[in-house]
Amino acid sequence: MQSVVASEAPPGYRERPSRFGRAVVWTRTVTEHDAPTPVLPDGCMDLLWVGGRLVVAGPDTRAFRPVAVPGTRYAGIRFFPGTAPALLGVPADELRDQRIDLADVWSAGTVRRLNERLAATDDPVAELERVALRRAAEVAPPDPVLRRVVAALNAGWSVGATAEAAGLNARLLHRRSLAAFGYGPKTLARVLRLQRALALARAGVSFADTAAATGFADQAHLAREVRDLAGMPLGQLITGRGLGSPAEAPGETTRYRTG
Q1: Which of 166, 168, 183, 244 would bridge with 187, disulfide CB 3.0–4.6 Å?
Q2: Rounded to whole angstroms, how far apart are CA atoms 205 and 55?
Q3: What does residue 103 show for φ and ψ, rounded to 5 degrees?
Q4: Phi and psi (nearest 5°) for 109?
């Protein structure tokens, strides 16, 4: 699925599928001409290399508006929903709406060695992939039920139908969703529906037809959800107009792809 918040990707942004199967890798250099673009919630988590630091971006419940000076360079690996907690060894809800140093999650010695390797390489995204692949070989894989939960909610299923299909009662689904995605299934469903709606609207589908196709009661309902989750009107979000001055450009890529 696509996660889109503007008419095109910011200048200097590049993305490709990762050799680690449940992720994409990306780079970005912030320029003085960048228009500030909010990072919208998408259920994903990122491991970022920026300014000589390894940073974990937890799952967002609202638009995040990072700021960085022109010239800031980023490399990142974006893990699809439910993937990162097993690799990091920490429940997603403990990182919800946060950006923290990896050293707050892993040992200082491990992070120091990773920082040294990243500082010495010409291809930091490849090093981040190696980190993910090594870690994946050391830990148990994510529960396959989580993929079914994401797929069902992204298809517009109700939380009740999703729980039944996953063989879980509502309370257990909620608890496991908190640990895997950072929030309960109802919030995850809202986030995924927002992303589906943005993809259609960006493709030129009218807002009324977008609302109908993605399960909103009407266009007004879509507008309320966009304002609540993104903090701005849908039209402004799609066109990118009125997002502020280039000096306020974000230091982290908008999430264009979630899984």
Answers
A1: 183
A2: 36
A3: -65, -15
A4: -65, -45
Average pLDDT, the chain: 87
Interval 136-160: pLDDT, tens: 999 998 889 999 999 999 999 999 9
Q: For residues 255 and 253, what is the distance between their CA atoms, to the nearest angstrom?
A: 6
Other C-beta atoms closer than 10 Å to the C-beta of 119 total: 11
Helices and strands per DSSP (H, E), number in the chain = 10, 6
Q: Between the CA of residue 225 and those of 154, 186, 222, what are the distances in Å?
A: 16, 13, 5
Global pTM reads: 0.87
CB atoms within 10 A of CB 211: 23
Are the beta carbons of 222 and 7 closer than 8 angstroms? no
Q: In terms of Cα–Cα distance, which of 42, 63, 57 is closest to 193?
A: 42
pLDDT of residue 244 exceeding 50, the answer is no
3-state secondary structure 173-225: HHHHHHHHHCCCHHHHHHHHHHHHHHHHHHCCCCHHHHHHHCCCCCHHHHHHH
Confidence at residue 10, expressed as pLDDT on a 0 to 100 scale? 63
Q: Which of 42, 78, 8, 57 is nearest to 195 (CA)?
A: 42
DSSP code of residue 146: H
pLDDT per residue over 203-240, tens digit each?
Answer: 999 999 999 999 999 999 999 999 999 999 999 888 76
Q: Indicate left, alpha or beta for 182 from its phi (over 0: left) and psi (-120 to 50: alpha).
A: left
Q: Give the residue from 137, 101, 132, 97 showing the smallest Cα distance to 17.
A: 132
The encoded tokens of residue 175 equal 């608890």
